[in-house]
Amino acid sequence: MTTESIQPSEDPRHHRLSRNMWAGILFGLGFVAFVDEAVFHQILHWHKFYDRSSTAAGLVSDGLFHAFSWFATVGGLYLVADLRRRQAFRHKMFWGGKLLGGGAFQLYDGTIQHKLMRIHQIRYEVDIIPYDLVWNGLAVIMIVIGLVLIRSARRDGFRKEAPVHA
Amino acid sequence: MHDGFSGILNLTIGCGSLLLGVLSIILYFTGVFRSRRKVRLRHWPTWRAFSWCAGTFLAVLTLSVPFMEAAHHDFRLHMAGHLLLGMAAPLLLALGAPVTLLLRTLDTSRARKAAGWLKKPIFSFYRHPVTASVLNIGGLWVLYATPLFHAMHSHPIVYLIVHAHVFLAGYLFTVSMIYIDPAPVRHSPLFRTAVFIPALAAHGILSKYIYAYPPVGVPADQARQGAMLMYYGGDLIDLVLIILLFRSWYKQTGTRTKRFIEKKPAPS
Known about the structure:
The complex is a heterodimer. By secondary structure, chain A is mainly alpha-helical. Chain A is 72% helix and 0% strand. By secondary structure, chain B is mainly alpha-helical.
């Protein structure tokens, strides 16, 4: 096989591993957005549908992320289905991506969207600081575990998986 | 607000849409029976006929006199009507695959002529995801964020135009995002996704705008409930569109992979 026929970036192993990661990142982001909507908006009624102190940028950012989260959830799951069909699905990489994507979105939501753009707070008429700390602390922990899993999955991905099967 | 609402035009819209609805169902079933007689063609699925009937029913329902009058007094019903007329009915009608059915029903030379017609640039222009999104969501912004909403209720002609636009733009948007009928120009799933996300976002942002700034003449609590209905109802129907979009990507890459493994050339 010559180098012209297969570019390094087209190495199927590398391609599929990163596809597992992206499926996880997308699904994780969508899942966190879904939990935010289902638990904090609908069940607990802590979040508000609309907060008068929202900035215009906040409304746009919230709208875009909300729309994107539907695509991320559905698209992430179809990517998983595609990887499984090719027998290229890797749980560890998927979980790593899921925690990274979910944590990153939660951190963005908890800092930029809640605090800077003030779209709404986690809860009203309470001391908000412990809520913010738990929310964003959890997000950071998810990101760290996600990154560790991705690194480890990448390492054993190239070690164990020497023969590539279609 | 209700004074200028003319009963006669109301009745005309109601009866006209009922007539069009009945006509569309008769034509559709004529097509189904004619295409079923052609043995060489694949059996036309019954669920497509159901879908077509359901879509027609919803559109006729929202344009019926009792519904229009009730919606006139209650913004929540007005919004429910818009979800049905502008999103649910177009999706159900598109799933009925009317163009495919038409092409199957016509004889070869006419079908070829009709297919040639559909290839005209004007259709591709309107069917472009960006054009369709701007007409659909942009139209809604114009309706709810300008005095048009108020004008619609005092001028029956405006009412008719707005509702025709909501329905047609909704259909255009649906067929620009999911390809059920033949589409001469096909945009990649990634491109359609990239256009769909801002369109869905603009729909959600408009809901929150209506929540915060009710249209003239709409009581605040009705506006809020209507806005939330728009937000979550829109999400629900668009979720179906998103699933259909990715499903077709999944099927398409599947056949491509199989072709690659079996080393078969792509069909021309």
